[in-house]
Amino acid sequence: MRLLSIETSCDETAASIVESSADQSYAKLLSHSLATSLHLHAQTGGIIPESAARAQIQYIIPVIYEALEKAGISWDMQNPPAIDGIAITYGPGLIGSLLVGVETAKTLSYVWNRPLIPVNHLFGHIYANWIQTADDFTPPMLPAIVLVVSGGHTDLLLMKSHTDITWLGGTRDDAAGECFDKCARLLGYNYPGGPRISELAAKGDPKAFPFSRPMIGSHDFEFSFSGLKTAFINTTRQHFPILRTSSEKIGWEQIALEKHLDQPQKQTLYDLCASLQQAIIDVLVKKTVAAAQHYNASSIVISGGVAANDLLKEIFTKKTIENGLQFFAPPKYLCTDNAAMIGAAGFFRNQTTTWQQLSANPQLYFD
Ligand code: KG4
Ligand code: ZN
């Protein structure tokens, strides 16, 4: 089975061609194509949904065309291409962005007479772990505990099979990625802030600032990151008075705080970032491993943009070995938004629909 998959839930426009493996246990990636409007949002200090949707319109056809071409499939409106269906993200996300992908997929479905497979973007992130990335690739063993950790989500799930996935808990306020992004913004960096914080953190001491680990001992599978964000912002402002009056200005003008500091001050900044990153990671790892022990899982699977964090993967690798668990994380290009994961989810949560029935749903959650 071979699918064209399309993802347009936010500021990335992506298309892929994926094929199921011979034993149907994972997806093979034949091609992927991606365009982003991130550069537009850097100028405005945040994503303006209208601009993101306009960029989606501009990119969608070239991106689909490129994905087909890279897989050696010709685009011909008269003759259907060699695909069996079209997997499409229908939510959650920005409605304007979602509509561009959904309406394009519906048009192609009608013209090419191919079924649509609606995919929830959040389940899509999980299935980034079911895409072949090496010749000796094996998919995660089930039951698994899944941590979806992105800019908008921090959720734990129990996955017993592809049709039995239960939500265990999530964040009560900010997502882990949002915490990285908002703290980075105080320091003068635009979205996405996680990679910038982790770059600065690599030069710092993670024990320098004893930030609290929110809800680490709460005996449930809930998270909270907004208090940690506030603690970081307050402590950073205490050390760098310039931020007390002009943090917004620095952020919007893209003048990174680091450039204003002498060497000892820079070290304090690196220590603050390392301590913040360590606090976030400690909570994520502790709660995920606790869930795996509680449900007697065979593996831990992580996904979403924050899963690209190298230290997070390093600590998960260590803790899972200690606990006799297998650990799976996608390569970086499959952690952040992409269409390959939407195609992989399309195989395993394969419910086809017709172009007359499909509509975008920006409010979707894990259901
Ligand atoms: O999955 P994603 O691309 O978009 C959403 O669906 O939210 O995730 C984006 C998030 C952002 O918050 C970004 O700061 C974070 O992932 N992120 C990271 C890293 N790379 C991306 N956070 C920490 N460390 C990283 N290396
Ligand atoms: Zn995402």
Description:
- There is one protein chain.
- This protein has 367 residues and is α/β, with parallel strands linked by helices.
- Helices cover 43% and strands 18% of the residues.
- The protein is built from 12 helices and 10 strands.
- The strands form 2 sheets. Strands 3-2-1-4-5 form a 5-stranded mixed beta sheet, sandwiched between helices.
- The longest helix is centred in the C-terminal third of the chain and has 32 residues, at 263-294.
- It is globular.
- The mean pLDDT is 93.
- Bound molecules: 5'-O-[(R)-(carboxyoxy)(hydroxy)phosphoryl]adenosine and zinc ion (ZN).
Write the layout of secondary structure elements.
Blueprint: E1 2-7, E2 12-20, E3 27-36, H1 38-44, H2 49-70, E4 85-91, H3 95-112, E5 116-120, H4 121-126, E6 144-149, E7 154-161, E8 164-170, H5 176-186, H6 194-201, H7 226-239, H8 242-253, H9 263-294, E9 299-303, H10 310-322, E10 326-328, H11 332-335, H12 340-348
Parallel strand pairs: 1-4, 4-5, 6-9, 9-10
Antiparallel strand pairs: 1-2, 2-3, 6-7, 7-8
Bound molecules: 5'-O-[(R)-(carboxyoxy)(hydroxy)phosphoryl]adenosine and zinc ion.
5'-O-[(R)-(carboxyoxy)(hydroxy)phosphoryl]adenosine binds at residues 150-152, 177, 180-181, 192-195, 198, 304-306, 308-309, 336-337.
Q: What small molecules does the structure contain?
A: 5'-O-[(R)-(carboxyoxy)(hydroxy)phosphoryl]adenosine, zinc ion
Number of strands: 10
Task: Please identify the structural class as seen in this structure.
Answer: alpha/beta
Portion in helices: 40-55%
